[in-house]
Specification:
By secondary structure, the chain is α/β, with parallel strands linked by helices. Helix content is about 40%, strand content about 20%.
Length: about 280
């Protein structure tokens, strides 16, 4: 589905965070903040159901590719209570350019998903409501997804004569091919509990407990050994895309490398000393 045109790179200060403004400067689009090692990326286009445009996809890609120093975890969330993300902004499709320019403009979501895959830090999604089309792609691209019991996931593109091509590249890596095709062919919505049962969601909690669950999780992850997390995420992704014999050989090498790090030595020393480890990220 298409991406919005009319880029704006202007940033404004918003309560200690960076707010990437939209073309009309009236909507913040993406709010970025760093606190205690957690980089929070908030999609804030409530009037457009938090639909994706160039400002959002470009901002997400940049933040994922070059997180600020001190970042341990990245949290993706959105403003409001009803919609996490409705996918690409369809309102601009009638005004899009044609040919190669149109094709290039639709690469925004691809950039975000590739940046998620290559990001060495854990990327967590907080899903509070409707998660549709490209929004499902964002959720699938994250390492963990914590959803409210009120959340719903769906791929309605087929109802518009379209197809969730970008999302389909990830979906069958999380759910069975039959389930993936069911979602794409019918456009039906999947509730949070079912989404967890099919492997699309990590945790489901009551709506009133969503923020507390997410806060606890990101704090736990931010306290983990950064070298182990970085190497572990990269190795896990690589192993999933190769044969078992090659994966086991690669994992043996990664284990040997990790045991040579200062963080590994500190973790073992802290265990025997019965104290909390002090990670240095080396």
């Amino acid at each position: 589905m298409g991406q919005a045109s009319g880029k704006s790179t202007e940033s404004v200060d918003h309560g200690g965070s960076t707010a990437v403004a939209g073309p009309d400067q009236a909507e913040r689009a993406l709010v970025i903040g760093l606190n205690e090692g957690v980089l929070t990326l908030t999609i804030d286009r409530q009037a457009r159901r938090n639909a994706l445009n160039d400002e959002i996809t470009d901002g997400l890609t940049a933040a994922l590719q070059t997180p600020p120093p001190g970042t341990r975890v990245i949290l993706l969330r959105s403003a409001g209570e009803r919609v996490f993300c409705a996918g690409a902004d369809l309102a601009v499709m009638e005004n899009e350019s044609t040919g190669l320019e149109q094709h290039a403009a639709r690469g925004g979501i691809r950039g975000v998903l590739m940046a998620m895959r290559e990001c060495p830090l854990p990327v967590i999604a907080r899903v509070q409501g409707l998660c549709l089309a490209g929004g499902v792609g964002l959720a699938a691209g994250c390492d963990l997804v914590v959803a409210s019991e009120r959340a719903e996931f769906g791929l309605p593109e087929v109802n518009l004569g379209l197809w969730p091509f970008m999302v389909s590249a990830l979906l069958a890596r999380h759910v069975s091919p039959k389930v993936a095709m069911d979602m794409m062919l019918t456009g039906r919505r999947v509730g949070a509990v079912e989404a967890r049962s099919i492997g699309l969601v990590s945790r489901v909690v009551p709506a009133e407990d969503l923020d507390a669950e997410v806060t606890t999780l990101v704090k736990e992850l931010a306290a983990r050994a950064p070298v182990a997390v970085r190497m572990g995420k990269e190795a896990f992704t690589a192993a999933a895309e190769t044969s078992v014999p090659h994966a086991l050989t690669a994992m043996q090498a990664q284990l040997s490398l990790l045991t040579q790090t200062a963080d590994a030595a500190e973790g073992v020393a802290a265990f025997f000393a019965r104290r909390s480890p002090k990670w240095t990220g080396r």
